[in-house]
């Protein structure tokens, strides 16, 4: 198998398939918002991470596992959507797909971007789940709340940047035919919340673990648990722009093999593997910044403790076994290589996939301001909601024992309350 793809499906597989369950929650040591009156009823759109999915594939809820967080929030009166976008695509491509999913229409990756990286400009056509986004009715602009888990947090940051600031290269390339996504001045996002997001990259993207058909094992486990068949499920890498579309009668095994053996893994930075590296995150942070009219929130998770004999961070007993190897690596890795982001022991405490220092907010290559949330949210800065202790990258999205499920479900409800009571 292509060595570069091995790196993705092993390092990022853990950064994804296991980490692709987003979830917003307040840390126990932080003040709850005192806002009581509902100020908006904007939809909440929950965006998965690497190797993630919405609520359709395998009949399994990415958000909540056996219990759908989407349905739980809807039962409380909130409007919630859980899109499926490219599970291994770059944040740029995923942001373009998310925009089309929301507004409706054919995905436009941008002429300049597509030519630069050598893939098709257009992708899937969506009916649109909220085509009224951006409509102005008596000075009331229709907006959205975006919640992203893991890589999903980076994707929604890119979407906000493009909507508000546009992209000069795309405008120069296509002029009047430029997609509204790239023209700028669209203030359509009320808030952004990131959960366990590697804003500064993840050490896991540095490590190449031998791929024990990890993806296959994970899918097989899910299928066995929920009675689904991978061959008939809607599992799709969504790499149509690269000419890697899953054929109607193609088995998952054959499709996976075709994708994994593609040359794209060696030839481009326009994929998740680059964005999730420290250097890729630094590059992204250099042009993606917090917008002055948007509320930004971040949540970090930790499920490790210090080993007194080595000084390293090691997994807590409750951490899911599939994350422990990754966690051990994150908890001891350092880097002082020239031209690479330096990594020291301040990066060691982690949730099995992402370091606390990376989840708090963008700092490497970024000028964004980060503050500790005190109950009064501020626009244009990162309101750090705090650390969730003894919760790993998967548990934080509801894939956990019942005792944790109810706790986390309530935290999602708390988040929804906060988002819909934000000041204007």
From TrEMBL:
Q: GO CC terms on record? A: extracellular region
The UniProt record lists the EC number as 3.1.1.3
Q: Does the keyword Lipid metabolism apply?
A: yes
Single GO term (MF): triacylglycerol lipase activity
Positions of the Lipase-like C-terminal domain: 40-401
InterPro entries given in the database record: AB_hydrolase_fold, Lip-like_C
- Assigned keywords, A-Z: Hydrolase, Lipid degradation, Lipid metabolism, Secreted, Signal
Tell me which domain of life the UniProt entry assigns to the organism this sequence originates from: Bacteria
Q: Where in the cell is it found?
A: Secreted
Q: Does the keyword Hydrolase apply?
A: yes
Q: What is its main location?
A: secreted
Catalytic reactions on record = a triacylglycerol + H2O = a diacylglycerol + a fatty acid + H(+)
UniProt xrefs under Gene3D superfamilies: alpha/beta hydrolase
Q: What class of enzyme is it?
A: hydrolase
| GO terms (BP aspect) | lipid catabolic process
Pfam families recorded for this chain? Lip_C
- Give the signal sequence positions: 1-27
Protein name per the record = triacylglycerol lipase
